[in-house]
Amino acid sequence: MNEDGHKFRTGWLDERTVTVYKPKPEHMAIPGFVYGGLLASLIDCHGTGSAALALHRKNGHEVGDGAEPPRFVTGSLHVDFLKPTPEGIPLKAVGTIHEIHPKKWRVETEVFAGDTLCAKGEVIAVVMPSTFAVK
Amino acid sequence: MNEDGHKFRTGWLDERTVTVYKPKPEHMAIPGFVYGGLLASLIDCHGTGSAALALHRKNGHEVGDGAEPPRFVTGSLHVDFLKPTPEGIPLKAVGTIHEIHPKKWRVETEVFAGDTLCAKGEVIAVVMPSTFAVK
Q1: What is the pLDDT of residues B6-44, one digit of tens each?
Q2: What is the Cα–Cα distance from A103 to A35, expressed in whole angstroms?
Q3: Complex confidence, ipTM
Q4: A6: which of A45, A117, B56, B62 lies 20 to 30 Å off by Cα?
């Protein structure tokens, strides 16, 4: 519902998940490079999206079958920045998903710019508590 | 130099550092709440800014004395999300800085929305390598 949000879209690639995102000019850190917060945001949203896909599939559903996917929030986020990330090319986040228990999933993510592994991340995603009420 | 950047500004508060930032409407996750990526970005930039202030002071300088402060990049970022973060009120990041060695600093940060501790983070900040050339 956020018109100016990043609108990350996460999908399956075999047993892994993929989010592709092209940073915008306002995401530069210094000229030529993407700022770390954008990579952290990508890993964060890719993590919760991946967990949602995995639980949805475990519940017998696939995106588009009409059932509402579960929603997750981020419990914790860790990012290791490995290489400066060039701007102007799409970033690809590839995730591997581990079930800790049905309401808590761990997603390990690698972010590539072209063939270069720029960052690695881990998200602990938890099913959105009912107290996290939408106004 | 990024007109659309967050433009976080970090300053001293005794031996700790503070960054205050008011999220914008486009930073909402679901209506009423700030998205985690913004908190991660705040902790990231607060961490590198705090390390720059600390090394600058160690080198005998204060902001505004004419000397160019050192620049840092983020080696790693960890965020624990503790509470949903309400939108519409300024966030305050408060940092405690530890020198690991002169080119590598650890910054522990707490992010408050009003009196509520919403997130805790840790950044390992390293002096920007000369290979990270500005175009």
Answers
A1: 667 888 988 999 999 888 766 666 667 788 888 999 999
A2: 31
A3: 0.88
A4: A117
DSSP B25: G
pTM of the model: 0.89
**Domain B10-127 belongs in CATH node 3.30.450.20:** no
> Taking CA atoms, what residue in A is nearest to B73?
A36
DSSP E strand stretches across chain B? 10-13, 16-21, 72-81, 91-101, 104-113, 116-127
Taking residue B107's Cβ as centre, other Cβ atoms within 10 Å add up to: 29
Beta carbons of B30 and A1 less than 8 Å apart: yes
Q: What pLDDT does residue B61 have?
A: 95
What mean pLDDT comes out for the span A103-114?
97
| Strand A91-101 versus strand A72-81 pairing type | unpaired
DSSP H or E segment with residue B56: helix B36-58
Task: Give residue limits of the domains in chain A.
Answer: 10-127
Q: How far apart are CA B95 and CA B83, in angstroms?
A: 19
Handedness of CA A11, A14, A15, A16 (dihedral sign): negative
Cβ separation of A74 and B84 shorter than 8 Å? Answer: no
